[in-house]
Amino acid sequence: MTRSGKPDFGILLVLADQEFVRALRAATAAQGFDDQGRSDGYVLRTLSAGPTSISRLAERLGITKQGASQIVDDMERRGYVERRPDPSDARARLLQLTTRGEAALAAARKFHQAYERKLRRQFGDGAIDSLRDVLTAMAGEAQISTPHFRALMY
Q1: Helix/strand/coil for 30
Q2: Are 69 and 90 in contact (CB under 8 A)?
Q3: DSSP readout, 103-149?
Q4: Among positive and negative, which fits the CA dihedral 147, 148, 153, 154?
């Protein structure tokens, strides 16, 4: 609690995020995607923009190439992504979503939309529009405008 007796703002943000992720995981698990990893959503959204290399994925996620390879190996084993030959470089491989990966991403996006609709019914459009403005300002327009985040947001 703060001096005003209200819960700490930063802790509320963390708790809200945790609750959102818990509800997202429950909703997608109910649709057959109960094996999702912590980074899967970021990879799915990044690959939804089109096939890419491990190096480019690592760059977009802000992790090492080895870290990206480990995540992709696991997601490939679970059937969410696949590696295909790069048509412009026979030595290279490109990552792309499988049908299962596309379905998991569609389920997550559907949940995101339903969650926002629920909040709008509960608190009204004005409150949610204001919350969106606050979150955008907190994240920073410059950060949101980067190709990395633009790929994740749509």
Answers
A1: coil
A2: no
A3: HHHHHHHHHHHHHHHHHHHHH-HHHHHHHHHHHHHHH-HHHHTSHHH
A4: positive
The span from the CA of 24 to the CA of 40, in Å, is 12
Whether 149 has a pLDDT exceeding 90, the answer reads no
Average of per-residue pLDDT values in the chain? 90
- Write the DSSP symbol of residue 52: B
- What pLDDT shows up at residue 148? 62
- Which residues are bridge partners to 82 per DSSP? 96
CA distance 136 to 143: 9
Is the distance from CB of 95 to CB of 52 less than 8 angstroms? yes
3-state helix, strand, coil in the chain (%, to 5): 65, 10, 25
Per-residue DSSP letter, 31: T
Torsion of CA 24, 25, 28, 34, to 10 degrees: 180
Q: Report CA dihedral (80, 84, 86, 90) to the nearest 10 degrees.
A: 150
How many other CB atoms are found less than 10 A from the CB of residue 74?
A: 16
Two tokens, residue 71: 């995540």
**Rounded Cα–Cα distance for residues 42 and 1 (Å):** 33
The yes-or-no verdict on residue 145 having pLDDT over 80 is no
